[in-house]
Amino acid sequence: MLSTKLCGRSLENPTILASGILGVSKASIARMGKEGAGAVTLKSLCHEERKGHPGPNMFVIDGGMLNAVGLPGQGIDNAAKEFGRLDDLRIPVIGSVFGYTVKQFGEVTEKMAALKPAMIEVDVSCPHMDYETPFYADAASLAKITKLVKKKAKGIPISMKLSPNVHNIAELAKACEKAGADCITAINTASGMKIDIEVMKPILGNKTGGLSGPALKPIAVRCVYEIYKAVKIPIIGTGGVMDGKDALEMIMAGATAVGVGTAVYYQGPEVFRRITSEMKAWMKEHEITSLDDIRGVAHK
Amino acid sequence: MTGHAECKLRTELPKIFKVSRVAIEAKGHKSIFLSGTLDSKPGQFIMVWLPGVEEKPMAVSEVGAEEFAFCYHTLGPFTQACDKLKPGDKIGIRGPYGNGFGIREHAMVVGGGVGMSSVSTLIDALSNPLIINGARDKEHLLYLERFKGKQMTVCTDDGSAGKKEFTTDALKEALDANPNIRMVYTCGPELMMKKVVELCNERMVDCEASVERYMKCGFGVCGNCLIDDRIICTEGPVFSGLRLKEMQEFGTFARLKTGKKVPLSEYYGKA
Prior knowledge:
A: about 300 residues; alpha/beta; TIM Barrel; eight-stranded parallel β-barrel; globular; B: about 270 residues; Rossmann fold; six-stranded antiparallel β-barrel
């Protein structure tokens, strides 16, 4: 009922653990599979080891979460040693990569591809990263990265993860598609800030951070809707999905699969099973047998 | 589908407290007392935010009617910044977080070094526990005054106070002498805890240990504190001896700030 085809791979269901949530160890991603996720995305890795930003890194506000973890990671070389390969788990694994320069995006992708993930997600859009230039806001830079990554991925499908902190996300998605992207992940977090009025300072160690959770969802749904109109490649709709109804909404906007991240905070790793059982119940009630029948239906 | 209603009501922001007093507990160990109340269970921890500096997890070491405290061992930049705190300073607290200890009587508590601060509110909650308090030497022993009058065995690595032996040797003797002990709680250096767990598992005595890893969010999302596939900040930090026996990383590997998996010795050197 929920089986989903994404870039040639069959997923048991359309829920995908979003990058940055618990995807640090092989044991933890295997566990997310057991918890009912259809696929898992690793925490993003680059060419070097990164400690990330000083704390506070993450907290929860009314209606969502703010984070500026700062992409800490052991780097692709250490990860390659620890993981060995990524195609020997029951669950499809999506490797997430980034770099500071276009060239580094290519180098990290090449090393990631050697681990044989099901897909490679390209994180061009972390809102609080010291990229050389804000790749995510410029169609020409995005096209350059897409082309290089596509070449280095050696046939493994790539998904470009886009930022909502732009005015023209559909155009940017189109530029990625034209440059060879197989998929679009939309969206990354929205840039935000929280100030504590007692100590009169921003709380995040990095001062600004990314907003996720329920407060992000309407923005994500709008972005997916606009991208669906502009491109033919599939979309992983990510942003504020908390329950089965949210996942269905994302699919009606045009998403093929649905990223789940912050919901793991609100409901624990069991959230995947909850989302899929709620989706099934709704579909049964509405006599819908396949997600293909409602994908993008909001555009009609 | 109740997800949304729950989410809108739930926040996890640092709450600002004023430092009420600072107490020197032992060489290099201080307690920071904060004015206010904290509804926490023994074994839980808080995220302590020093505005403009950093945020770190700390065990709740004392809980009173009008104040609560955390105790630390000065090691790096964060604890050095804690050393500068004085009454009236404002700091932020998130939490309490974590599962905490399951309270059972006929219990023993084994604390090593600053790990004593993680079991101190547990000792307060138990009616008459046997305590083993270990440190490298006399000057580094915590809470000798606080737990005076309780059944406490002191041991030091150099014999400058109490017996010159390891806490695990003292535990073995105590278990031999007290067959009615039903539960052993422990917090301290991980290799010590691993031995405690092994001893208890061999003798079929229930056991709980509080495990530490590098933590960022405190609420089960970032993945930095994973041990095997378990999330320490929400599913721990307290785990049963039987669960720990199954964990391959317990007593062997930990992750640095970057997430890199390294031998425990390197973790304690760098983190």
